[in-house]
Amino acid sequence: MENDLKPATIAAHAAGAVDPQTGGVVPALQPSTTYLRDEDYALIRPDNIYSRADSDNLRQAEEVLRALEGAEDTLLFPSGMAAIAAVFRTLPNGGTAIVQSGIYWGTTAWVRDFCARRDVTLVEVDADDLLATCLSQESDIVFVETPSNPWLKTVNIRAVADASNATLVVDATAATPILTRALDHGADIVMHSATKGINGHSDVLAGVLSTRATDAAIWDMIRADRKMAGAILGPFEAWMLTRAMRTLPLRVERMSQNAQTLAEHLMAHAGVSDVFYPGLPSHPGFDIAQRQMQGGFGSLLSVLVKGGRDDALRVVGKLKLFLRATSLGGVESLVEHRHTIEPHTGIPENLIRVSVGIEDISDLIADWDQALG
């Protein structure tokens, strides 16, 4: 039966995590950094030596994510960027990486700097040109983000996997494993900023990598690097993450429903020139998203208001329920004028990135109507 459990059941039961010492149905928080040995200096528990590699709270959270992804193994990190860095540090000097352009700017900026320092050839390519590039360019790693942030571009994971012999790494943060299990579509490794939808409460910083095959050399390198470099998520954060993931499928379902309804409403609004959301038939990646995303299209969308920078800032300033803050995937709706944050990336001055929460959709629509009016 365990192999047939659905995501909602896995999440609600935290993949079976309980507290065996007390019988509590909630796993205990164990903050210890070191573990006892007996009189003969044998470990009381052979799997617990030192918390830089050993933590029951970490293992519990990893097991929930592993089961949700259908992965062979899962590793948690203290942030999404720490997870990305662990992947790219496996690249040999003089290697080659193909990276999708127009993705989360923090990823692009770090990867550019890293590749320059390590003499790694970096090939940045738009989502629409990924297949042709992968077919013509040998590489060690292909890194894509789908749906992408903030352009919401959708990448056909299976097609990219078939077009390249490189290790395919997919950032599926905006989808979460509830909507897209990237490993099922051919990815070798899937990455999430667990800070976002997976945690969903804007109170935990975390990143995660999951692999389709533990016998791949790259996974051994990532695991060893995490331990020796100390890129470990703390036990409290891991405990908080496990707690949050119990409602992950419910949150994703509600947020996706809200985002779909809001996207459709704004697309028809006289004050909006375009909406980027993979659940809209007008979206260029709609067909791919329909095949690749199950149960919804996520909480992230971008809105192009009519006019320019001042018009976008006026709308953002008038919103009441949509909080002006960076991040996405939380239960509260957030809004951000991306050009103010990243003017150097070529982002349109009238683009507003929106993370839709779990509030009543009629309230969210009313808030946008009054702001656009």
Detailed description of the structure:
With 373 residues, the protein is an alpha/beta fold. It folds into two domains: 244 residues, Aspartate Aminotransferase, domain 2 (3-Layer(aba) Sandwich); 125 residues, Aspartate Aminotransferase, domain 1 (Alpha-Beta Complex), CATH 3.90.1150.10. Strands 1-7-6-5-4-2-3 form a seven-stranded mixed β-sheet, with helices on both faces. Strands 8-9-12-11-10 form a five-stranded mixed β-sheet. Strand 2, helix 4 and strand 3 form a beta-alpha-beta unit. Helix 2 packs parallel to helix 9, helix 3 packs parallel to helix 4 and helix 10 runs parallel beside helix 14.
List keywords for this structure.
373 residues; alpha/beta; Aspartate Aminotransferase, domain 2; Aspartate Aminotransferase, domain 1; 2 domains; seven-stranded mixed β-sheet; five-stranded mixed β-sheet; 12 strands; 15% strand; globular
How does the helix and strand content classify structurally?
Answer: alpha/beta
Mean pLDDT, all residues: 96
Q: State the CATH superfamily name of the largest domain.
A: Type I PLP-dependent aspartate aminotransferase-like (Major domain)
Task: Flag low-confidence runs.
Answer: none
Total strands: the figure is: 12
Fraction in beta strands: 15-25%
* Total domain modules: 2
Q: What composes the largest sheet?
A: 7 strands, mixed
Supply the CATH class of the largest domain: Alpha Beta
CATH topology of the largest domain: Aspartate Aminotransferase, domain 2
Strand order of the largest sheet: 1-7-6-5-4-2-3
Order of helices and strands: HHEHEHEHEHEHEEHHHEHEHEEHEH
Any guess at the CATH architecture of the largest domain?
Answer: 3-Layer(aba) Sandwich
